[in-house]
Amino acid sequence: MAHPGVYYRHLSRHFGPQYWWPGNSRWEVMVGAILTQNTAWRNVELAIAELRRRHLLSRAAMLAAPAEELRAAIRSAGFYRQKARYLQALAAWVADHHGGSLDRLFRQPTGRVRAELLALPGIGPETADSMLLYAGGHASFVVDAYTVRILLRHGEAAAQGSGDGYAAIQSWFAAGLGRDVGRWQEMHALIVAAGKEFCRKTVPRCTACPLGPLLPAGTADVGHQPFASREA
DNA sequence: GCCCAGGTGGGTA
DNA sequence: TACCCACATGGG
Fold this sequence. Notes:
Order of helices and strands: HHHHHHHHHHEHHE
Number of helices: 12
Structural class: mainly alpha
Number of strands: 2
Oligomer: single chain
Low-confidence stretches: 220-232
Distance between the termini: 18 Å
Strand order of the largest sheet: 1-2
Shape: globular
Mean pLDDT: 91
């Protein structure tokens, strides 16, 4: 189990196609990326449905809407005050700096887009990479809590107190996924599927995991702490 | 009632 | 750099 391709093969065979990211447009994907922060996707779906019902899902409408109304619409996704602020900041920034064109934004080099997104409030590494990978079609791998947890339990990554663990894990996948961005998209989606089923915090061990038995929870799982690959 | 969910930002030593 | 903590709803 020393190559991302092995993960891909096992998980793909077990779960099949994931059809990610759920969303009808690039903007909707970006909205979902913010709404899902530390939030179950089910609650995000409720929020997006409510945004659609109120005709607030478009960038223009979201930007023009009173903060109170936007908050009410996304309430089900939790953290609704800050998320409403983040959404409007993003919408305003796209309008002000890219002429309201996501084409223009994502036409830039990956590193440039990523830096710009990270400079916005409420957009950290995972959210930026989700937007890049699924809204922009850029090869920027998404490292989320499930990714970290799975790699830890399978001994691929070691907890480390210093350094940029996110980048280390990202590089590990990037080096082994090839050029097909669709494969990058599928890889992350499969990891989330596996995480939800086999690698929840409350699942101590599971011999049915398609990647093989998981280590007992709590032995190496340190949640959101930084990580580095073993050779680091 | 308690734990968890596809994180991020701000504060402290 | 390395921890803390707030942020908030809905489901198991």
